[in-house]
Amino acid sequence: MKQDMILITGASSGIGRAIALHLAAPGAVLHLGGRNADRLAATARACVARGARVLARCQDVRDAEGMAGWIGGVGSLDLVFACAGITASTMVRRGGGPRESVGQVRRVLDVNLGGVVNTVLPAMEVIGRQERDGRGIRGRICAIASVAGLVAFPGTPAYCASKAAVDRFMVATGGNTARDGILLSSVCCGFVRTPMVAGNDFPMPGLTEADAAAIAILRGVAAGRRRIVFPWWLVAGSRLMDLLPPRWAEAYYNRQPAGRPGSMPETGGMSS
């Protein structure tokens, strides 16, 4: 897998940072994007120490014009990783059931889904103009979805919806772009030890270290997998749960500590 020219959003922490560190090597050029300038600079320094050339940019993935200008101006791209994302849960309301605020729903969808679209579409334009390699491949694009996108979890409705849309968009679109030599991958992973889950005070089954997650993702991308899943048993169980009638699934979910109203900040935690 050619990996000389790389672009990563959400590179200032979590999975994005871990992927950047794994790909940092002499000869590699890393275009790293994130919103937290200090954390992004720290990632850049760590990658430079490993021999890579780094071009860092503070960029909000919700800014479609800014993203198009950034990605369209970097030159050729071998690998693109859309890793920026946020999560948040419902909150208890006075005199009513748990709900997400309007602002929270829009922000989660704008970052998690809009941010991926704002990354993937201009990246496809750039990669589509490149020459194919010996295997007919022009470049690869990977977006981080979630096992949450496979279920209708009442504790995190907007997050589930955003990740479901990311997964379906990447998998479905990838069937078309593969003909043009652009390989798309969606990552449906469980809990990964990142700042996004640092405040969770409930058990997280299958918790994966960020470094191990990056390795699994890079292997899947190199193999050209349309959907990369881990841990497999959690993903398989989630798919089975989603086959149940909604009320049956909710009866189980509502007894779990994960994602209960107020278990995560209302404004969400940015992973970029």
Report the helical percentage: 40-55%
How many beta-strand elements? 11
Shape: globular
Number of domains: 1
CATH superfamily heading: NAD(P)-binding Rossmann-like Domain
The stretches of 5 or more residues where confidence is low (pLDDT under 50) are 268-272
Query: How big a fraction of the residues is strand?
Result: 15-25%
In the CATH hierarchy, what is the class? Alpha Beta
**CATH fold descriptor:** Rossmann fold
Alpha-beta content class: alpha/beta
Strand order, main sheet: write it out. 3-2-1-4-7-8-11
Biggest beta-sheet profile: 7 strands, parallel
Number of helices: 8
What is Rg?
18 Å
Order of helices and strands: EHEHEHEEEHEHEEEHEHH
CATH architecture: 3-Layer(aba) Sandwich
Global mean pLDDT: 92
Cα-to-Cα separation, first versus last residue: 26 Å
InterPro entries: NAD(P)-bd_dom_sf (IPR036291), Sc_DH/Rdtase_CS (IPR020904), SDR_fam (IPR002347)
Protein name: SDR family NAD(P)-dependent oxidoreductase
Family: Belongs to the short-chain dehydrogenases/reductases (SDR) family.
GO cellular component, one term: membrane
Concise synopsis of the structure shown:
With 272 residues, the protein is of the alpha/beta class.
Characterization of the model:
The protein has helices spanning 14-23, 37-49, 64-72, 102-128, 157-177, 210-222, 232-241, 246-253; strands spanning 5-9, 29-34, 53-58, 79-82, 91-93, 96-99, 139-144, 182-189, 192-193, 208-209, 227-230. The protein has 272 residues and is an alpha/beta fold. It has one domain: NAD(P)-binding Rossmann-like Domain (Rossmann fold, 3-Layer(aba) Sandwich). A seven-stranded parallel β-sheet has the order 3-2-1-4-7-8-11, sandwiched between helices. A two-stranded antiparallel ribbon has the order 5-6. A two-stranded parallel ribbon has the order 9-10. Helix 1 (14-23) packs across helix 6 (210-222), helix 3 (64-72) runs parallel beside helix 4 and helix 4 runs parallel beside helix 5 (157-177). The longest helix has 27 residues, at 102-128. Mean pLDDT is 92; it is low at 268-272. It holds the Pfam family adh_short.
